[in-house]
Amino acid sequence: MALEVIFLFVLALVWIVFAVVQDLKTREVANWLNFSLIIFALAFRFFWSLFDGSFAFFYQGLMGLGIFFVLGNALYYGRFFAGGDAKLMISLGAILPLSNYLLFNVQIFAIFLGIFLIAGAVYSLSMSAYLSIRNFKSFRKEFCRQFRKNKKLVFVSLFVGTIFFIFGFRESSLFSLGIFLAVFSQIYIYTKAVDEACMRKSVDVSNLTEGDWLYKDVKVGKKIIFAKWEGLSMDDIKEIRKKHKSVIIRQGIPFTPVFLISLLVLIWLWYSQILGKLFVLF
């Protein structure tokens, strides 16, 4: 493994471990942590290129940063990521170009994102299962409520799924679609029940931080502080503290461990030389 690749992997691991610890403790990742990773990665690339005599390694870092800037913002505005997670994804754009060749780096990006999606799905399902078991009484009550509320969706989902399943006897590709449609409503209800029963927390207004997501709109005198995806601003928090002692906020699942898991898997694939075999698939 080339020395420059080892340095980039170690740099990313150290920063992501700090991000995970901070996320688990405070449920946020500080901007300075993400921005400093970008600065250190690009600075290393610049000086390495300076001594190497070719700036391709530096330029690839800039291109990776640009690609992941678009990706991170798409995930943020698509409401898949919170702000800290999106910035951490962007910062990895300065790390993941591991070669001087764009096509090679694009393949690495694709493989990393594939790993990330799989790890994210397994992690999210595991965490939601843990939360539903930990808060089983409230989860069961909410699940029943959501089931009654979405009876029509359940019926339509099962009916359409059954039709596709039956046609699957003639066209095998329709089997999996039928199963998915049949269980779609249950997955939706399960997700809503976990969100409503396990992801809410009452907090003292003195403990509110910028970016906290209100569970519902809060009225402060004649003004309404809306429960928006972007979270609370400092001005919103100051207004809430004038009239309220506590509010209910939504707590998302800390997602930074997925970054750590995905990077470790990528390093293992690189070190075991399996990564080269995967390139054949792209």
Describe it for me?
By secondary structure, the chain is mostly helical. The chain has three domains: 3-117 and 255-281, Four Helix Bundle (Hemerythrin (Met), subunit A) (Up-down Bundle); 135-198; 200-250, no CATH class. It has eleven helices and five strands, in the order ααααααααββββαβαα. It has helices at residues 3-26, 31-52, 56-77, 83-92, 102-134, 136-149, 151-167, 173-198, 234-243, 256-271, 274-278, and strands at residues 200-204, 213-214, 218-220, 223-225, 246-250. Strands 1-5-2 form a three-stranded antiparallel β-sheet. Strands 3-4 form a two-stranded antiparallel ribbon. Helix 5 crosses helix 10. The mean pLDDT is 84.
Q: Return the structural class.
A: mainly alpha
Named at the architecture level, the CATH assignment of the largest domain is Up-down Bundle
Helix and strand succession? HHHHHHHHEEEEHEHH
Strand order within the widest beta sheet: 1-5-2
* Rounded radius of gyration (Å): 23 Å
Provide the low-confidence segments as ranges: none
How far apart the termini lie comes to 22 Å
- Helical fraction: over 70%
What name does the CATH topology of the largest domain carry?
Four Helix Bundle (Hemerythrin (Met), subunit A)
CATH class of the largest domain: Mainly Alpha
